[in-house]
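About this split. The held-out portion is used to measure sequence recovery: a designer receives only the structure tokens and must propose an amino acid at every position. Recovery is the fraction of positions where the proposal matches the reference. Here is one held-out target exactly as it appears in the evaluation file.
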């Protein structure tokens, strides 16, 4: 299994995996011109990882997402929900700037859509 390490751009998040710790982290902003093109390799990597591993902690530190990125995130969360239904241990930690009420609202909306341990964690901007 290869490490996933995507460098950030002005419109795409950094994506880093720590295989030994079972962590996948997304951080930055997400409004690529084609979200599906950007996230397809990430979803493929995640599917392969979940076939080989028993647990995953997803740390989301995304400041902003456009609507197509939100759809891709929902696809990712659906994949994680299916893995949890097969007995995988999945935890989501969503970090948001405590001064950004829209970021909190987005995290809460995602939490309502999944049946996974979903922690919403405030951080100082």
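Reference sequence for scoring:
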């Amino acid at each position: 299994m290869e490490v996933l390490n995507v460098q950030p751009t002005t419109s795409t998040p950094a994506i880093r995996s720590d295989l030994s710790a079972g962590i996948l982290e997304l951080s930055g902003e997400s409004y690529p011109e084609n979200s599906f093109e950007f996230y397809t390799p990430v979803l493929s990597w995640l599917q392969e990882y979940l076939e080989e591993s028993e647990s995953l902690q997803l740390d989301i530190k995304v400041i902003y997402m456009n609507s197509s990125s939100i759809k891709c995130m929902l696809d990712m969360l659906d994949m994680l929900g299916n893995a949890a239904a097969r007995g995988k241990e999945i935890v989501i930690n969503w970090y948001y700037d405590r001064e950004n009420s829209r970021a909190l609202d987005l995290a809460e909306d995602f939490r309502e859509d999944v049946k996974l341990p979903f922690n919403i964690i405030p951080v100082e901007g």
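Annotator remark: The radius of gyration is 14 Å.
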